[in-house]
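Researcher: I've got a protein sequence and the SMILES for NAP. Could you write out the 3D structure of the bound complex as C-alpha cells? I'd like something to compare against our soaking experiments later this week.
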Amino acid sequence: MLIIETSLLYFCQLFALNPLSNLFLMSFIASPSRYETMKYNRVGRSGLLLPAISLGLWHNFGGVDDFNTARQIILRAFDSGITHFDLANNYGPPPGSAEENFGKIMTKELSPYRDELIISTKAGYQMWPGPYGEWGSRKSLLSSLDQSLRRMKLEYVDIFYSHRYDPNTPLEETMMALSHAVKQGKALYAGISNYAHEQTAQAAELLRQQGTPCLIHQPKYSMLDRWVEKDLLNTIEQYGIGCIAFSPLAQGVLTDRYLQGIPPESRAAKPTGFLQPEQVTQEKLQIVRRLHEIAMNRGQTLAQMAIAWLLKDWRVTSVLIGASNIDQLTQNLAALNNLHFDPWEVMKIDEILNDKA
Ligand SMILES: NC(=O)c1ccc[n+]([C@@H]2O[C@H](COP(=O)([O-])OP(=O)(O)OC[C@H]3O[C@@H](n4cnc5c(N)ncnc54)[C@H](OP(=O)(O)O)[C@@H]3O)[C@@H](O)[C@H]2O)c1
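Model: Sure. Here is the predicted complex with NAP in place.
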C-alpha cells in the first residue's frame, strides 16, 4: 500500500500535480528511494540524526567552479540520503560564493525539501575588511550569520558554528553569540570547530549555562591526522557532543588521486586549492600505497576504506567529505557497504600509520 502511495506521489510530482506543491512546476523531483541506503547516526546526546556521510562545500562549489557540476553533485547527494550540507561564510572562492550558489539551488530545486535538510554555516575566519570581519566577537558572529542567511536565502540554518577559537575574545562572549543565534531562531543548534579539547570543555560548560547545549564539534580527522584521538574524542563523549570529521580523505591524498603524480585538474594543481603540491610528499604516498593494498583486500577503494575507518568509532557521527564530481561522490558513498574491520586489519593499519612518525 505504502509502495503504491509513494509511487503515485512520485508520478504526480513528475507531472507537477503534487497537491502539496500547489501545482508549482518543480525542476527537481527527489528520488523516492533516497532514504533506503543511507545510515543515520545520533549526534551526541541530542535528538538530531545526521547521515553517516555528509557533503561539504568548501571546494568545488564557488564562483570559480562549474555551477552545473556543483548542482548535480548536491542533487545526487540528496537523492542518496545525504541530508546534511556543510558551508561557511568564506567558502568559495570568492568568499561567500558557495553560499550564494547553494542559495540558488535551494530556491530553485530544494526548497520543497527544506525540512528534510540540515544546513550548517560558520563564522570565524577572515570574511570582510576591518576589525569585525573575522574571529569570535558577538558583533562578528551575528553579523556574519545575517549575511549567510541572505546569501543562502534561508530564514534559518540548522547548525551555526564558531569556526575557530578566538584567544582574544572572552569565550563567554562567543558562546553567548551562538546561544543568541539559537534563541533568535536564526539557527536551530550551536556547534564549534577546530577547538582544542580544553577549549571544547569550557565552551560546552558555557553553552550549557546558556541553555543551548553544544550539539557538535567539527575537527579535522583522517588516517593521516589523528590529533582528536588523544583527548578530544573523550571530551566530546563526556559532554554528549557529536563529532563530524572534516577532510576525511586528507583533501584527496587518501585516494588513488596522486599515485601517478599530480593530475592537472586535481586540488593540489589548482591555484585556488588549499592542498599545496608540496604537501603531497613521497613519504605520504608510500603510506597511501600500503593502505591501498589493505583496501583492495577488503574489496574497497582507499577512499572508501578511509571513510569506513573513521566511522568504526561510534563517537564519529558523520564523515564530512568533499567531491569534485559525481563519480567521486558515488564511489565514496559505497563506503557504507563495508564498515566492518577485523581486529587484525585495524592493527595492520595502525602499524602503517605509526610508521609515518
Ligand atoms: N571546519 C573547518 O575548518 C573545515 C576545514 C576544511 C574542510 N571543512 C569541511 O569539510 C568538507 C570536506 O573537506 P575536504 O574537501 O577537504 O574533504 P576530503 O573528502 O578530504 O577531500 C575532498 C577532495 O578529495 C578528492 N576526492 C574525493 N573523493 C575522491 C575519490 N573517490 N577519488 C579521488 N579523489 C577524491 C577531491 O579532490 P579533487 O579536486 O582533486 O578531485 C575532493 O574535492 C569541506 O567541504 C568543509 O565542509 C571544514
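Model: The pocket of NAP is lined by residues 56-60, 86, 163, 193-194, 218, 246-252, 255, 257, 266-267, 303, 320-324, 328, 331-332 (CB under 6 Å). The chain has two domains: 1-32, 39-252+311-334.
Researcher: Great, I'll pass this along to the crystallography team.
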